[in-house]
From TrEMBL, chains A, B, C, D, E, F:
<dbReference type="InterPro" id="IPR003779">
    <property type="entry name" value="CMD-like"/>
</dbReference>
<protein>
    <recommendedName>
        <fullName>Carboxymuconolactone decarboxylase-like domain-containing protein</fullName>
    </recommendedName>
</protein>
<dbReference type="Pfam" id="PF02627">
    <property type="entry name" value="CMD"/>
</dbReference>
<dbReference type="GO" id="GO:0051920">
    <property type="term" value="F:peroxiredoxin activity"/>
</dbReference>
<feature type="domain" description="Carboxymuconolactone decarboxylase-like">
    <location>
        <begin position="28"/>
        <end position="106"/>
    </location>
</feature>
<dbReference type="InterPro" id="IPR029032">
    <property type="entry name" value="AhpD-like"/>
</dbReference>
Length: 115, 115, 115, 115, 115, 115
């Protein structure tokens, strides 16, 4: 597993646990609801994870992008498909999305190597 | 056809024509590229239009939302599916997306009535 | 009651009902959670409503601003206090917040007249 | 003078006066500073107004766009120049800037007619 | 004092000094005005710092969040109170605020250790 | 050449090549169009690069800011001129632009040393 992937996962787990331990009911429910959002429904999880990815890209949140790239990878989404999600994000969100696309591409490549 | 739908389409067409008549090459190519982005590819147009819709919602652009709702409607996307796109947008983008969801729901309902 | 206040409330109620009738579980829970967020807790509702107002202003969501102005009004927040919330929003968010401040000021004045 | 131009100016003046009458020192100073920002300096006002315009477009603030279009018009900026500002805004900010470009184009055309 | 706190403060001071040394009048006045914004007024500094914190979170500016966390810490705001500010930010701004909440929580914990 | 400048350029080149190698037509054309946007036209490249810089600042994209600072440096823009671009960005975009201004100032100073 690459360093970048491990570091992202470890920090994310550690701090999510810390936040949840603080016992704020609204935050706990939001974290819960976040998980439910991507469950199978009228749309398959596979499609919803791409929706989460493109939203994270246009809002330019690198950590959210990494998280949804992991989920897209788990869902068996192919590299040409991921590139088309990147394309929508770059057209809708403009060239300010490009630096985030560079980091997303790098993270995606690392996920591919670590299957 | 409802007034809201007609007005949106008429203003959009009129002003797009006006902008293109100004003959700025970069803008003309961007408009062109925008159309290509949603063409069938590794992902079907149907999925891409939902990607366009969710991006427009989290970026809170009502006119972009209307445009992609029309395209989703043409692609035969169902109301429960559209609601799940709305759900992703509201969770990722927060409660500031709610007012845009109200206007999106209204526009979607008008599109359904006008099939 | 002023027309602007009535129209905002009527449209908001009508469309919230419509959205909730669509029975998407994630959206229903988010609407619920939204209400809980501003309940008395470690911080009083009064403070939380100002937090909601300033967040809505820097994110430039006019309908969210109106909603929180109503809540601030119910909480007995004074005009000089509201102006200080506006000031924080304008300094943090910049002059692009000014047009939203104009509409917020107008709505606040209407709320005062309708006590 | 077109209705759209008159309405924008009248509402802007009326509400700016109302806000300033509330006598919040931070807001008053920010309004003042805003005016100073575009004064002749190392860069001419002409350039600074285009900087204000492009910033307003990528941040998608229609009223800010109108304001800077008026200033650009006063500075004798030509239509092909304004279109190139629009082009930068659309490329940097993406297709979500297009609906704002439609309204900007319309306002610019009205300003031209009213010279 | 933790490394993270020291580094943040040192870089912030060094670069603020450098920027102010460049003697741009608008920037100098804005820095000044920024300080005035949080002074005691109709609202206490304590409340205003929470307004600054929540605004920084929904706008997803990590450095601004750190700065206001320091000020909230100085104002004696408790951990449950800070968590309620985080809750408002996450509900209003959505799950894209979560990664910023992780970093905010970590910084807050370090501030607590260094009292 | 400073480490920061070298690292930025190396990573940017490497990942742009990687993205282009993936052969997504929309992304390739957008990259191309991005270059054309800043070509001499009704407005000189010099002005357009300042438009790109101010847009990147208000949208708070550090990598985009670095890129346009390099281009502004190549165009012979002076430090007082760059500071006035920073001033417009800070007034329009608010104090959340300040942390990005700190990093921009540092990068600009490094570019000056490396002429």
């Amino acid at each position: 597993m690459s360093d970048q992937i491990n570091e992202f996962r470890a920090y994310r787990s550690k701090m999510n646990e810390r936040i949840l331990s603080a016992d704020n009911l609204v935050i706990k429910r939001l974290f819960n609801l976040d998980t439910n959002t991507y469950a199978e429904g009228a749309l398959p999880t596979r499609t919803k994870e791409m929706l989460g990815l493109v939203s994270s890209m246009v809002l330019r949140c690198d950590d959210c992008v990494k998280y949804h790239l992991e989920k897209c990878h788990e869902q068996g989404i192919s590299t040409p498909e991921v590139l088309e999600v990147f394309a929508v994000a770059n057209i809708v969100g403009g060239t300010i999305v490009i630096p985030h696309t560079r980091r997303a591409m790098e993270y995606w490549d690392e996920l591919q190597k670590n299957t």
